[in-house]
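Shapes recur. Our protein:

. . .
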Amino acid sequence: MFFHNTSIAAVRTWTGAVSTNWSNPANWLEGSIPGPTDDVYFTAADPLQGCLLDISTSIHHLSIDPIYGYLITFPAGKTLSISGDLYIGNPWIIWDNNANIIFNGSTDQHIEIDNYVDWPFYDLTINKPSGNVILDSDIIVSNIFNLISGSIDCNGFSGPCPPPCTPPQTGGIYHIANDFAL
């Protein structure tokens, strides 16, 4: 008899109940770690401790509540792939952001960071088969900005489009067809 394990898209909410490790199912309110189709939330709903991205993983959306108060650590050598939107309501809680964050969805994806305080992506990769990455706020890439495929809509903001794709002051959309690394 064969059993096929399927993953159903769901909301995953961080609690940090037993440790800081992302990979421990007991740290998630729903009792399982997020998968590629799941929406991940860090809320102010009584988390016990911060979060360490101790594995490379793929998720759909990532949302960090403005009043979430614990550290989220993205260490070097780890990759977080996001096929949906990224919303960071409290940029002060991201610490040791040295991971590669990849946007790889097939529809438009938004990046929004509230209370902009020069929160940098360390490595940022855009590898989209279709759709735009739409910047709803300025961002900084402090190490490698790798544009493999896709379109970037800078939406009137000043970053992260480095030369040769620096946006005009009025914003613009940039179509990237080949590898580009800064």
Observations:
- Residues 1-6, 158-182 have pLDDT under 50 and may be disordered.
- The chain has one domain: 11-181.
